[in-house]
Specification:
77 residues; mainly alpha; 1 helix; rod-shaped
Length: 77
């Protein structure tokens, strides 16, 4: 009977240790993935801001060109 309890405790310790190691590994992988995604999002946001400023400049240039064209070519009725 003593041997059976000892084997049961060993099996329980092995099982609990395996679960603990798996959960620790899972936490580490999730944390690493989170850091990678945050860096990627930061780069994406910076690129989007750059593109937005370029688009704003382009819109201003096109608007000025259209306005100048309308001044040079009045509509006929």
């Amino acid at each position: 009977m003593d041997e059976l309890i000892r084997q049961g405790l060993q099996l329980m310790a092995l099982g609990m240790g395996t679960v603990f190691l798996f959960l620790s590994l899972l936490i580490a992988v999730i944390s690493l993935t989170s850091r990678i995604i945050q860096k990627f999002e930061l780069k994406t946001e910076q690129a989007a801001e750059t593109m937005t400023s370029k688009h704003d400049d382009l819109v201003e240039v096109i608007s000025a060109a259209v306005q100048q064209y309308r001044l040079d070519h009045p509509r006929r009725k």
